[in-house]
Amino acid sequence: MTTRGAVLREVPGRFEVVELELDDPRPGELRVRMVASGLCHSDDHHATGDLKVGRLPFAGGHEGAGIVDAVGPGTTGFAEGDHVVFTFLPVCGRCRWCAHGMQNLCDLGASLATGARWEDPTSFRLSLDGEPVAQMAGISTFCEYTTVSTSSAVKVPSDVPLEVACLTGCGVGTGWGAAVNSAQVRPGDVVIVMGVGGIGMNAVQGAAHAGAAVVIAVDPVEFKRMTALTFGATHAVADIKEAAELARSMTNGQGADSCVVCPGVITGKHVGQGLRAVRKAGTCVAVGVGDVRTGDGDIPLAELVLFQKRLQGSLFGASAPTADIPAQLELYRRGILKLDELVTRRYTLDEVAQGFDDMHAGRNIRGVVVY
Ligand code: CXF
Ligand code: ZN
């Protein structure tokens, strides 16, 4: 069948909507009619070249939800009409990492960046004028229809609105898990969250859910600071120095228990600032994606070693998507996890590039394409 989808034809470049050929689902695959897709900074990282694309054209989008439209021959566990949220990191359920509850590190993720199917780097599901098109994260959620592996799909209850459920496929899990799993926030903690966009806002609510006594949101954009206060931040300041001083003033000069580093384009400087802001044996969690071409920043080694601090990377919030996506949706249903409030603006597929302009201008917590 054909489907409309937003692709990059060049890097640096902008997403443009084209008519693509979409393959039918094969064994172990599903065709999904997309309902919604979040606009995440990582899509834009591919547009700028911060992250490499496996090939061009590249069909973007990796935070989506939809309804199963067709099931590949012999595919088990899913049926037409099922509601699914995609996990941007596929989960095999069997590798060493999956077996130990680290589904976010599943070995299937190793060849994701090729834009092809992980079991065969020459096997694509989208094409344009006869040429293969890369699928971002194997899912390409900026398409009206997409064909995915069942390893990328998590069945969710049909009463949860997919327009917001899609956010659990990347941004919510990444931010919330960074606080809950990676920073291991404990009741009474003092936590700094640097950068409160679509990821950091969820780190704020994750830290609050974990019982932090103080959550200091740091962002230069006033609208984001004000929003953070409604997501559980107790304080909101414009720069990290002020946040670090505030944390020290509340901890007898020691510093924050943890700092979750979530700027849209992370640098070594941000990580160094985070490390300096935490107390002895405190934790700095690096979440944001940097520019792969220049991304190796200096780390203040004295802070790390002499004060026995912990520097922790975090991918998809160290989550197990098949367990955590349904759990987060249950928290949403019970009014504990905010999802509706994350969505600043809804877009049509044709407005994807506009959505990223709005993200850069600081106008959005999350933009969402609704199909
Ligand atoms: C990113 C992590 C690096 C690869 C692309 C996706 N995470 C979330 O947006
Ligand atoms: Zn993302």
| Class by SSE composition | alpha/beta
Bound compounds = cyclohexylformamide, zinc ion
Order of helices and strands: EEEHEEEHEEEEHHEHEHEHEHEHEHEHE
Number of domains: 2
Largest sheet: 7 strands, mixed
The N- to C-terminal Cα distance equals 17 Å
Kindly describe this structure.
- The structure is a single chain.
- This protein is an alpha/beta fold and 371 residues long.
- The protein folds into two domains: 2-169 and 339-370, Alpha-Beta Complex (Quinone Oxidoreductase, Chain A, domain 1), CATH 3.90.180; 175-315, 3-Layer(aba) Sandwich (Rossmann fold).
- It has helices spanning 41-48, 96-99, 162-165, 171-182, 200-209, 222-230, 240-249, 268-277, 301-306, 321-333, 352-360, and strands at residues 2-8, 16-22, 29-39, 58-59, 64-71, 83-86, 126-128, 131-135, 145-149, 153-155, 190-194, 214-218, 235-237, 256-261, 278-286, 310-313, 343-347, 366-370.
- The strands form three sheets. Strands 3, 5, 6, 9, 10, 17 and 18 form a seven-stranded mixed β-sheet that branches. Strands 13-12-11-14-15-16 form a six-stranded parallel β-sheet, with helices on both faces.
- α9 links the parallel β15 and β16 (310-313).
- α4 (171-182) crosses α5 and α7 (240-249) runs parallel beside α8.
- The structure holds cyclohexylformamide (CXF) and zinc ion.
- Residues 40, 42, 62-63, 170-171 line the site of zinc ion.
